[in-house]
Amino acid sequence: MKAVVFDMDGILFDTERLCMEVWKEFADEMGIKNIEKAMIGCIGLNRTDTRLFLKNFYGKDFPYDELRQTTSERMAKRMEKEIPMLPGVRELLDYLVERRVPIGLASSSRSEVIKSHIARAGLTHYFQVIVGGDMIEHSKPLPDIYLIACEKLGVPPEDAYAIEDSPNGIRSAYSAGMKAIMVPDMIEPTEEMEEKATVILPSLLAVKEWFEKNEK
Length: 216
Prior knowledge:
Helix 1 packs across helix 4 and helix 5 (89-98) runs parallel beside helix 10 (204-214). The mean pLDDT is 92. Helix 6 links the parallel strand 2 (103-107) and strand 3. The protein is 51% helix and 11% strand. It is of the alpha/beta class. It has helices spanning 15-30, 35-42, 47-58, 64-81, 89-98, 111-120, 144-153, 167-176, 191-196, 204-214, and strands at 3-6, 103-107, 129-132, 160-164, 179-182, 199-200. The longest helix is centred in the middle third of the chain and has 18 residues, at 64-81.
């Protein structure tokens, strides 16, 4: 284990449920159907690919820009109160620091959002490398974001772990040649995920325990 690269939403922070809430609010106001199904397909995508996905899902007239602006503003207001960190985040990060394992973050969210979230949560010092979805043309499920993260960490992808919650994230890490650990959040693992993930675990605390047993 020469490096570990984390996803952010659904791994470090319980933000995907908040996002689902504000998307549903917007959809109800606009009379848009099946927004839950549409959002599930968008998890792990950057802004460019989310736009493409929704235009394909609903048609070219889908009001993506209005959705993005409205839901971003509502998310920001909710996140002002609290950054909902998921269980085991600090324990796993501290374990990796003690082992002197380089740590990266590869998220389809914009870089400024990532830096804001981890700063407010007091996690900035853990990460040597941050790669956001705005730093690449196409994000997950393509491998680019993880390949860049590994390059910046100076580690071959095959020697690094990726910790992900979504199918798109697992596909991205797998395509990059990394060892992918899935910690499911909003999407239950499928047979494809069982094949592509090195292991599927219920929490970051379970990931720490798995590392203790398998990476001595």
